[in-house]
Structures are given as structure tokens and as C-alpha cells.
């Protein structure tokens, strides 16, 4: 397959030998129909994948056993007498949000890796890469801190990944542990240790870039994280994202100086930002992956950079082949594979090793979480469109539990921290459901703020999105048509008009309290209970449901629009 340099991960060679200009429109309704019907971008391409036997069993990647270390990310590739010529195939990408998918359905982590390995085995020089947001935000992530994903990726033979914002959700120390556990290589140009200037997790084996010898072609691989990551996840005080263009340009230059014939960026930024990066930084041959789950039937080409976006999780895999002649990229082609369609056609079966890992973790999870903790007499609304834009009955219950546990005047819970995008029917409530809705490792924090600061926070909330606040102990009215700063027209706390000069106690989660979703007005607020003392939010809600036994939360007019 290829030889890889690993300045911080010497074990990849052995691990891999053991395993085998212009449309970014999202088309969630029609794209699977398009791919399945035409078969030109998907399943038909599998007819030539020789890694599965006639009975469908997976064959290991024999070619990867020939991998040899040839360069290092701090060294220079061996010079060749002739400019490089050849083809390199990128099999991309991951972005699985800590989930295995439904192991009973066609598209899941086990079938995905079988398909990934078939595509890789069908190309002489292929590299299997991810795009970040892999370790969280699932219920499995809440229980196992992302190790369940690393173990599955190790077994499936992923070779390179980059950081996404959700990979930091369990905190930087947990992510460092996962880097140490990884048999694949983590790369990033712009997730940095603010104290050393090196890549985050360097001591555990991450690197700013790696050079891979794929036949005669030397490939430089790096990655990028979205620049807003420090405000939407828990990166820690010593981790920073110093922009996008400048750090990428510096790393691209270094890779070229070290002998890279091709430069590939594993991307966890939204497609518009990736396009801007391609326009601004010369020398990038390909950008693969997307923070916002964009899907494009064809790659874009911007400033001689090929950009490929194939959604997220387990629906699709991209096979992007780059052709090099005399040291220059001269052509490219993209095939997109529909995982479920490939399974339905009988060409893909679950990867045995990955399936074993997934079933093991699912079994452990079931033992812990498939327990009824209460019941609801009304549907519980955790739909994204609701919790990020208006009052939700389940949002009210969560905020009430938080306020009661924190013994506070008011409570606020960011809608982006309420996951699953589900409307749960009346009936039993399980611990699994609670942890799925609240998967982040956020502890309760109680702070003191002035009424003026509360109004400032509500002004920010009124802009919607993941920072939209579900509230308890207060009511407010806002006019979305007014300019920022004038939207909030009325606020009451405990039934009384808010006093901008008064001090109020506010129960929230550690993410919001430390400035997440741009709530920087809370960062320096005095702590009554800090994150190290507070209880896990999901545990608080679970305990409240168990104590109540039966719940019937309602929408009460806590949040009104004019």
C-alpha cells in the first residue's frame, strides 16, 4: 500500500499489517436515491473489489504488510532522480459523533469499515482517513470517554484522523488518553498547545503533519479544526486554535520543503471555510471532510485544490484518487459509495473485528443503561428545531432539575447540549434515554451574576442556535426583529421584574459557565459551586426523574416572542 513516517507513532506499520467549481448543496432527501439508482457513484464500483471472497468474508490487506518507514515529519523525504508519477487514493472519512450507528441496520460502523477496507484493497496506493468529531457525542461516549471509538477504529484499520470540536467534549486530558490508545495517527495544523506552540497531544503521539510514501509519490497529510472550537467545546486553558490560514500555510510550506508531492488536508471546518482556505493558501492538492456534514455529488476545484464532502457518520464513503505525473497533480476522480446500498446488494458484510468490539461495548452499555428510571405522561420534546429556538417542555424539566439541585434563583441550559433530536412518546424513561439526551460530561456550576449580565445572556440566547437557552425560575420576552442589544423586552425572576443592579444565583453547566457558545460574560463570575464540585448534569436529571417517578412537563410561556 504505502510506507508511512511517524515521528510520534512508531507502531502504525505493525498495526496496519495486522488489519487489513462548485456545488456544496446539501441534498438529504434525494442523494441516496441518486447514488443507488445510478450506481455510477456507488455500489457498482465494488464489483472490482477483490478483498472479499465469494462467500462474503473479509480478506486482510496483505499489501500493507510491506509498509516501510521512509521519512519523518521533522525530516526530509529521500530525493529521487526522477519526478514522481503515480496515483494515490484517499478513502474518506469518519465524523461519526461517538456513535456505532444501529448494528441491526445496514449502515453502521462494522459495515462501514468492511466497505472502507474493500475500497482500499482495490487500489494500489490508498490511505484511509478520518475528519474528526469521532469520539463524542453519543451515550457510548458519555460512558466510555471515546475509547469505544478508538478501539473500533484500531480494529478496522483507520490510518489517519484529525481533531474535531467534539473530540474535546470530554476534556483535553481524556483526548490525550485516546491519542495514546490510538494505533492510527492524529494530525492537526491548527490545534495547538498554547504554551509550546506544538500540536495538541504531541507528547501522546499527535503531529502537525506526516509524510507517506505511496509508491513513487510522497503524500503530506495534515488536518484542521474549526476555529470556533474553543468557544463550543472544552479544549482547556492551554489549548488554542490560532486561526486557519496562517497555520495551514506554514505547515503546507514545511511539507513541501520536506518533499511532499501531494498535500492533503483532513478537514473539520464547514465547507465555506474550506473553500476560503483553498482560495487563500496555495499548494493544497485536496481537502476532504466537512464540519457541517455537507454532501456533494462531485468534488469542487478551487485554486487547483480538490474539495470532497461526503456527509457524516455512516451513510457514505468517498474514494478520491489523485493522479501525479512528473511531480505535478494532473487529474482526480471521485467515487461515492452508499453503505446501505452496498450491504443490500450483498457486497458488504460487517467487519468481524469491528463488530466484535461494537457488540462488546453495546453489551456493557446495556447492562448499565437499559434500566427504567421513571415514566412520562406526555411526549418529551428534545427536537433540535425546538430546543435551539423556543421553549421545550423537556428543556423546562432539565432546567428545573438543574435549578433545584443547585439551589439557585434561576437555571439556564444551552439547547445545543440537549441532543438526539427526538420527540419521545409517553411511557417509560430509561437511563439510556437520559444519557443520550445529555451526553456531554458537563457538571453543574452555580455562579453569581447581576441582572444586567442575565439580560446580556438572554440577548445572546435570542439569536438562536446551539446557544439558545432553556430556562427555569425566570420568564422573558424578546423581539427577534429588533437589533442585537434591544431584543429582550421583558424579564421576570421568581415572578418579580428583573433588577439589573441585583445579584442572582444561576445554575448552569460547566460548558456555558466557562464561556461556551460565546457566553463569555460568565467566565469570571464568582463560583458558588464550581465544575469540580458539581454533579454531572445527566445524573442530576436522572435522579430528579427517579425521585418524581412520573413526570408531565409542559410549555408554560417562559420564553415568548413579540
From TrEMBL:
Provide a GO biological process annotation: nucleotide catabolic process
Where composition is biased (Basic and acidic residues), the residues are 7-22
MF (Gene Ontology): hydrolase activity
- Entry-linked InterPro entries: 5'-Nucleotdase_C (IPR008334), 5'-Nucleotdase_C_sf (IPR036907), 5_nucleotidase/apyrase (IPR006179), Metallo-depent_PP-like (IPR029052)
Query: Which species is this UniProt entry from?
Result: Haloarcula amylolytica JCM 13557
Composition-biased stretches, type Low complexity, lie in 70-85
> Biased-composition ranges for Acidic residues?
55-69
Residue span, 5'-Nucleotidase C-terminal domain: 372-523
Stretch list, region Disordered = 1-32, 47-86
User: What name has this protein been given in UniProt?
Assistant: 2',3'-cyclic-nucleotide 2'-phosphodiesterase
Q: Which Pfam families match?
A: 5_nucleotid_C (PF02872)
Amino acid at each position: 500500500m504505502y510506507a508511512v513516517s511517524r515521528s510520534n507513532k512508531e507502531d502504525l506499520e505493525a498495526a496496519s499489517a495486522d488489519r487489513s467549481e462548485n456545488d456544496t448543496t446539501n441534498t438529504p432527501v434525494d442523494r441516496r436515491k441518486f447514488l443507488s439508482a445510478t450506481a455510477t457513484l456507488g455500489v457498482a464500483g465494488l464489483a472490482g473489489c477483490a478483498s472479499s471472497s465469494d462467500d462474503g468474508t473479509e480478506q486482510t490487506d496483505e499489501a500493507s504488510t510491506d509498509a516501510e518507514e521512509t521519512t519523518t515529519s521533522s525530516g526530509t523525504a529521500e530525493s529521487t532522480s526522477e519526478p514522481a508519477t503515480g496515483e494515490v487514493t484517499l478513502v474518506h472519512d469518519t465524523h461519526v459523533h461517538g456513535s456505532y450507528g444501529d448494528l441491526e441496520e445496514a449502515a453502521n460502523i462494522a459495515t462501514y469499515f468492511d466497505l472502507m477496507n474493500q475500497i482500499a484493497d482495490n487500489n494500489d496506493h490508498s490511505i484511509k482517513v478520518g475528519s474528526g468529531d469521532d469520539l463524542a457525542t453519543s451515550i457510548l461516549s458519555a460512558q466510555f470517554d471515546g475509547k469505544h471509538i478508538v478501539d473500533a477504529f484500531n480494529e478496522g484499520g483507520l490510518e489517519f484522523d484529525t481533531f474535531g470540536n467534539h473530540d474535546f467534549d470530554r476534556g483535553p486530558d481524556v483526548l490525550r488518553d485516546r491519542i495514546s490508545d490510538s494505533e492510527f495517527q492524529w494530525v492537526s495544523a491548527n490545534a495547538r498547545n498554547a504554551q509550546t506552540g506544538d500540536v495538541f497531544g504531541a507528547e501522546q503521539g499527535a503531529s502537525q503533519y506526516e509524510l507517506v510514501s505511496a509508491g513513487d509519490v510522497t503524500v503530506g497529510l495534515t488536518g484542521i479544526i474549526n476555529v470556533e472550537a474553543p468557544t463550543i467545546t472544552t479544549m482547556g486553558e492551554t489549548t488554542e486554535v490560532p486561526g486557519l490560514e496562517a497555520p495551514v500555510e506554514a505547515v503546507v510550506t514545511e511539507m513541501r520543503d520536506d518533499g511532499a508531492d501531494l498535500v492533503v488536508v483532513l478537514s473539520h471546518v464547514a465547507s465555506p471555510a474550506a473553500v476560503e482556505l483553498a482560495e487563500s493558501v496555495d499548494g493544497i492538492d485536496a481537502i476532504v471532510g466537512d464540519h457541517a456534514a455537507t454532501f456533494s455529488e462531485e468534488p469542487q476545484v478551487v485554486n487547483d485544490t480538490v474539495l470532497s464532502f461526503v456527509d457524516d457518520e455512516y451513510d457514505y464513503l468517498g474514494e478520491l484518487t489523485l493522479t501525479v505525473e512528473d511531480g505535478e497533480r494532473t487529474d482526480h476522480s471521485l467515487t461515492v459509495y452508499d453503505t446501505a446500498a452496498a450491504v443490500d446488494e450483498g457486497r458488504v458484510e460487517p467487519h468481524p473485528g469491528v463488530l466484535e468490539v461494537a457488540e462488546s461495548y453495546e453489551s456493557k452499555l446495556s447492562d448499565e443503561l437499559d434500566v427504567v428510571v421513571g415514566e412520562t405522561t406526555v411526549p418529551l420534546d428534545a427536537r433540535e428545531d425546538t430546543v435551539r429556538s423556543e421553549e421545550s417542555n423537556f428543556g423546562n424539566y432539565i432546567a428545573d432539575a438543574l435549578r433545584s439541585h443547585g439551589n439557585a434563583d434561576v437555571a439556564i441550559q444551552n439547547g445545543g447540549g440537549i441532543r438526539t433530536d427526538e420527540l419521545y412518546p409517553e411511557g417509560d424513561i430509561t437511563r439510556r434515554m437520559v444519557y443520550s439526551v445529555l451526553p456531554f460530561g458537563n457538571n453543574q456550576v452555580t455562579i453569581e451574576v447581576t441582572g444586567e449580565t442575565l439580560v446580556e445572556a438572554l440577548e445572546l440566547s435570542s439569536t438562536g442556535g446551539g446557544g439558545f437557552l432553556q430556562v427555569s425560575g425566570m420568564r422573558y420576552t424578546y423581539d427577534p426583529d429588533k437589533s442585537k442589544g434591544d431584543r429582550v423586552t421583558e424579564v421576570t425572576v421568581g415572578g418579580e421584574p428583573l433588577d439589573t443592579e441585583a445579584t442572582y444565583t444561576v445554575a448552569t453547566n460547566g460548558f456555558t459557565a466557562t464561556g461556551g457558545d460565546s457566553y463569555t460574560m460568565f467566565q469570571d463570575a464568582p463560583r458558588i459551586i464550581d465544575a469540580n464540585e458539581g454533579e454531572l448534569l445527566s445524573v442530576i436529571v436522572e435522579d430528579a426523574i427517579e425521585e418524581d417517578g412520573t413526570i408531565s412537563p409542559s410549555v408554560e410561556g417562559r420564553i415568548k416572542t413579540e
